[in-house]
Amino acid sequence: MLRGAWKLGVLGAASLVAAGQSWATPTPGGIDFQTPATETARRVQAFHFEVLIIITVITAFVTALLIWVMIRYNRKASPTPKKFSHNTAVEIVWTVLPVLILVWIAKGSFPLLYEQDVMFNGEQVPEEQVVDIKIYGNMWYWDYTYNQNTDQEFVVESRMLRAGDADRPLDTARGDIPQLSVDYPMVAPVGRHVRLKITARDVIHSWAMPQFALKVDAVPGRLNQLWFKVDQPGIYYGQCSELCGKDHSNMPIELWALPQQQYDQWLVAAQADPANGGRAYLDSLPRPGVTQLAAAE
Ligand SMILES: [Cu+2]
After folding, report:
1. In this structure, is residue 122 part of a structural domain?
2. Calpha distance 211→257 (Å, rounded)
3. 234-271 pLDDT per residue, tens
4. How many whole angstroms from 217 Cα to the centroid of ligand 1?
5. Do 59 and 148 fall into the same domain?
6. How far is the CA of 117 from the centre of ligand 1 (A)?
7. Distance, CA 141 to ligand 1 centroid (Å)?
């Protein structure tokens, strides 16, 4: 019962946060989480707020104890200190209670680790329904391989947009976000199980997508995996999250989640001309989802 009430409070707080449009996408000066875009991200954020409540109560309790001791037992108030050094009841309580709190936190945390790490949270998804995208980190850009190991395999390179660039300069009027928008974004279908295989060609990078609550290192010579299933069409942003050299801050991740039909059309366009990454097709679409909110502000 108590647990149910807690969860309601936690979810209420989370949805209040989500309701603030300015927090839906990365905005200058924004605080708090971005709106979660996957079931996993929603659960991770709810768990965050649960732990936040626990640590707030503990911190307040310990602070109150400290203040009480400082006032009640300072040299003036208590000139002759008591000499005892053991109290079995208190010792049992201050051992058992923290253990119970840690077990409670572990009970919420371990299933989330499993969910992020194990493909599709253990759900058996037929191979032909899985969308595979391979991600390489490079100094200092990402590239994305689609239809890997088929005769339709192609690679799209993805670099940050800069003001004044010759090919495609950053244009905030179009909805581009400085330091986050790229020339040829990653594209994935909505409502499908997307399996990411992530590695790097030179140094360690890290592929991170806050709205999906996902982050994993891209390590040369090693293959890491992540998965997601995004509910809403939208443009989602992340950044390389492992210090990888002088342009570490200039290798953002831009992911367009498109309805299946648009995704299929993009695949055809991008495969025909990978160097242009289906950009003309993407530009022909109304910019999907959350970015419209950010651009309208
Ligand atoms: Cu990097």
Report:
1. no
2. 12
3. 899 999 999 999 999 999 999 999 999 999 999 999 99
4. 9
5. no
6. 21
7. 7
- 207 and 174 in a common domain: yes
Whole-number Å distance, alpha carbon 244 to ligand 1 midpoint, is 5
pLDDT tens profile 146-204: 999 998 999 999 999 999 888 889 888 888 888 899 999 999 999 999 999 999 999 99
Query: Which sign does the torsion angle of CA 264, 266, 269, 274 carry?
Result: negative
Whether 277 and 132 share a structural domain:
yes
- Rounded distance from Cα 66 to ligand 1 centre (Å): 44
What are the structure tokens assigned to 48, written together? 């965050």
Let me know whether 146 and 280 are in one domain: yes
Highest mean predicted confidence (pLDDT) among 120-124, 246-250, 293-297 = 246-250
Domain that holds residue 66: 2-117
41 and 71 co-located in one domain: yes
CA of 206 to the centre of ligand 1 (A): 6
Q: How many domains does the chain have?
A: 2
- 229 shares its domain with 107: no
Provide DSSP, 90-103: HHHHHHHHHHHHHH
Contacts of residue 85, defined as CB under 8 A and 6 or more positions apart, other chains included, come to: none
